[in-house]
Design brief:
Chain A: One of its GO terms (molecular function) is oxidoreductase activity. The complex is a heterodimer of chains A (325) and B (360). In chain A, 36% of the residues lie in helices and 20% in strands. Chain A is of the alpha/beta class and 325 residues long. In chain A, β13, α10 and β14 form a beta-alpha-beta unit. In chain A, α1 runs parallel beside α7, α8 packs across α12 and α9 packs across α10. Chain A is globular. With 360 residues, chain B is an alpha/beta fold. Chain B folds into two domains: 314 residues, Rossmann fold (3-Layer(aba) Sandwich); 31 residues, no CATH class. In chain B, α6 packs parallel to α7. Chain B is globular. Classes of the chains: A alpha/beta (325), B alpha/beta (360). At the A-B interface, α3, α4 and α5 of A face α6, α7 and α15 of B.
Chain lengths: 325, 360
Amino acid sequence: MAQMTMIQAITDALRTELKNDENVLVFGEDVGQNGGVFRATEGLQKEFGEDRVFDTPLAESGIGGLAIGLALEGYRPVPEIQFFGFVYEVIDSISGQMARMRYRSGGTKNAPITVRSPFGGGVHTPELHADSLEGLVAQQPGLKVVIPSTPYDAKGLLISSIRDNDPVIFLEHMKLYRSFRGEVPEGEYTIELGKADVKREGKDVTIVTYGAMVHASLKAAEELEKNGVDVEVIDLRTVSPIDIDTILESVKKTNRVVVVQEAQRQAGIAANVVSEIQERAILHLEAPVLRVTAPDTVYPFSEAENVWLPNYNDIIEKVNTVMNF
Amino acid sequence: MKHVLESVESQFEMFQILNEDGKIVNKDDMPDLSDDELRELMKRMVYTRVLDQRSIALNRQGRLGFYAPTAGQEASQLGSHFALEKEDYILPGYRDVPQLIWHGLPLYQAFLFSKGHFHGNQMPEGMNALPPQIIIGAQYVQAAGVGLGLKMRGKKSVAITYTGDGGTSQGDFYEGMNFAGAYGANNIFIVQNNGFAISVPREKQTAAKTLAQKAIAAGIEGIQVDGMDVLAVYAATKYARERAIAGEGPMLIETMTYRYGPHTMSGDDPTRYRSQDLDSEWEKKDPLVRFRKFLESKKLWTEEDENQVIEQAKEDIKEAIKKADQYPKQKVTDLISNMFETLPQNLQEQMEEYKAKESK
């Protein structure tokens, strides 16, 4: 099996679907000749032509609108928003328009659009590039929000997202693009949207997380194991809707939970996970469900990133708190 | 430098065919319409005027919901629509319900849209249109996508979209035209300039002398048209359509028009921002009066014709509102079903919850 980085796995998924379905279109700022600022679309224009993989004018709302119009003509658009911090420019096209297409038309129209976008901290970008804004789109009914943490998941989830007949926001953590390689099968395979994955089995405590924090959590789990704490790590993979069944199964086994997200604490994915757990499994809990998050400030200027972002020490501390409760 | 600066100053001349007295002032551009087609245009304008009057009355009786009056804008709305073919795609603004009706939306469904029932947004099979857009300008960027799709599919049809004078201040207005221009997409962009964005006058929207000239920045064709002259609006739209399907790119059409009524029936009071003098000035330009004079001079229209259309409209409206009133009410489970192709876990649970509530 091929060893790939996450960015290679994403390119591979795009190539697979461009080949599979002539209605798949890939477009955005710099995605053509240049292959995207992260090279996610490297070589795709050359391989599939300028009608299938093309540059757009520099306007995010226009890109979102273009995707909606093309979807109405039977295409399956895969637009790229160059950085998810630019989502404020296209939030009407996403939340006000594509998310509502099926509902607004009484089920007679749909928007099979996959909006891909890089996000996430730790790579020293300028302002409004790194913010974790998944909560913003997860709050909008009508969207699915997917965040892969490994090359294998990235390819399978992206293929599933493109094939989905409703809009999917597919967020790619920049720090994971090239930080490691993983096994990625050749050809097509899918991973069901809305299904979490147990990345590490354990019996003492459950960490529920996603994105780059999956790796911080796995690192914390290794450290904790040295002290005899057996940690289970659940990777949500889809943050809206969340896979409550997989979480509950784990909670009923471990009775202790820490939810970890890179985003700020207020009104986020972690808060939703905590609410669902306490509504459905409070009698299985031996301790309050704690959260590890960033503080509720604006995303910091890049020099302060490393003191601001949650890290594996923060995770170890919270796991110890729930273990000793 | 001065001569260079002067060379970019633009002032668009307004395109007109029929003047206020119903006389042809521009014979060269007179569209090639048969007598039957001319009569059909008049019929549609009279019918739509009656529909507007009845809709306002029904709204006041509480039998309709959201309604944006259309009287005054018939030539802009129906003249542009008359130049379209069945396969063309309409992306309307919230006041553009008449175009949907003449494109194939049954009247009772237009009433259901007003009442806030999703069946009003279910366009009949084979009718290419979106439901009316509420966000000002959002339809412009979507139209560029449809227009590009039509071009890539090799279809000989266009995507037409409508906004108002206020809409031209939105970023989406420019982005839509700019994308369509860059891709040479099959698009017609209409601005119905009725002089007021709710209460804000046209002069406060922009320093630009015309809205049509905004096409220049996007590199597309633009024209200002007398929006009370149905023949001029028809001719301009027909020209734009032919260009677009010939691969010559999109066109912006600004129609100079006026809405006699309030912005919507939800509490707007035009006396707060418009003078009676201005109202009367525009009523003199009325599209129906002008076109009626023209047709009467050609012996193509009589009082009897007019009354027949009025009676037919009233009859249709009566039937349609009855049908809309009797249409099954929406349930929460219907709304849940319309969210996704396959319901995710959270909505599956909520579906069960509401099914139980609804069966009580």
